[in-house]
């Protein structure tokens, strides 16, 4: 959320939020309390939310199908990937294939694949 708040300031937005609250597996109160703490550091405000309410999660799945948006089966962290049985070596292979012919340092300087403090 720190990066989201920082980007909100850089882009001149009054608020930032977190899509994490759409997950039925995430505690919105905890996420919102973190956002409220983060807003104290930046010249922007956190928008407390619980996007899973009113069938928000189900609607997000429907919209991804409707607009052909990729939806991964885990939150994106290594721990969830391992629990879900995601083959991280396959992800790494696909990422490397995607990067063929691209200058990652220039085009994607913010992206790093790390696990337990080591770049993978």
Task: Compile the SSE list and pairings.
Blueprint (H helix, E strand, L loop, with lengths): L1 H10 L3 E2 L11 H12 L5 E2 L9 H11 L11 H7 L3 H12 L4 H4 L6 E2 L2 E2 L1
Parallel strand pairs: 1-2
Antiparallel strand pairs: 3-4
3D structure, described in words:
The structure is a single chain. This protein has six helices and four strands; from the N terminus they run H-E-H-E-H-H-H-H-E-E. The strands form two sheets. It has a two-stranded parallel ribbon. The two termini are 23 Å apart. The chain folds into two domains: 2-66, no CATH class; 78-119, no CATH class. Helix content is 47%, strand content 7%. It has helices at residues 2-11, 28-39, 56-66, 78-84, 88-99, 104-107, and strands at 15-16, 45-46, 114-115, 118-119. With 120 residues, it is mainly α. The longest helix has 12 residues, at 28-39. The chain is globular and about 40 Å long. Strand 3 and strand 4 (118-119) form a beta hairpin.
């Amino acid at each position: 959320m720190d990066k989201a708040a920082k980007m909100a300031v850089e882009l001149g937005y009054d608020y930032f939020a977190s899509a994490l609250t759409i997950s039925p597996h995430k505690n919105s109160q905890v996420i919102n309390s973190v956002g409220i703490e983060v807003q104290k550091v930046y010249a922007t405000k956190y928008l407390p939310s619980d996007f899973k309410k009113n069938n928000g999660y189900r609607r997000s799945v429907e919209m991804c199908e409707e607009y052909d948006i990729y939806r991964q089966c885990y939150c994106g962290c290594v721990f969830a990937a391992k629990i879900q049985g995601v083959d991280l070596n396959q992800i790494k292979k696909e990422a490397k294939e995607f990067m063929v012919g691209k200058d990652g340092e220039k085009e994607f300087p913010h992206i790093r694949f790390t696990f337990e403090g080591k770049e993978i």
